[in-house]
Amino acid sequence: MTERTRKALFDILGPRVCGARVLDLFSGTGALGLEALSRGAEEVIFAEASPRMVKVILENLKRAGFQKKARVLKAQLPRDLKRLPEGPYDLIFITPPYGTGLGQETLVQIKASFLAEGGLIVVEERKQESFSVENTPWELVEIRKYGETALYFLRRKDGARD
């Protein structure tokens, strides 16, 4: 995600970040979770498959002084979703590598109970990729496009259960 897109995302999220419990899936360098912490998130759980990126996230957390508000897990997603700390989370970021289909796969496997009442899931995909919320407990609230990137904002469907 570009810096411009990240800024736009957090401008949209606004005050909902402050005090939030955040799950950052496919964390990469941890930029989204770190931005959430800098804007007052209570806690961020980072999940990333690459050992090298896990190390980068830990270094970035230390540099920013956020180690006590974060947990970093080496996780192969979506397979390891069941290993993640239980929800509910107020914000869930799903930002897989483009062209892998892992965003869609992960979205299908996330339980409704992972998202708090009134919470949001934000999925980043390349805007040319197909995206669907069929057969999920999620409903599409909004789509924002920035260059080649599409951000999908989702919430739990009324009455959705695990």
TrEMBL record:
Alphabetical list of InterPro entries matching this protein: RNA_MeTrfase_RsmD, SAM-dependent_MTases_sf
The keyword Cell membrane is assigned to this record: no
GO molecular function, one term: methyltransferase activity
Entry superkingdom: Bacteria
Any one GO BP annotation for this protein: rRNA methylation
PANTHER family named in the record: METHYLTRANSFERASE (PTHR43542)
Key words, A-Z: Methyltransferase, Transferase
Protein name: 16S rRNA (Guanine(966)-N(2))-methyltransferase
NCBIfam families linked: 16S rRNA (guanine(966)-N(2))-methyltransferase RsmD
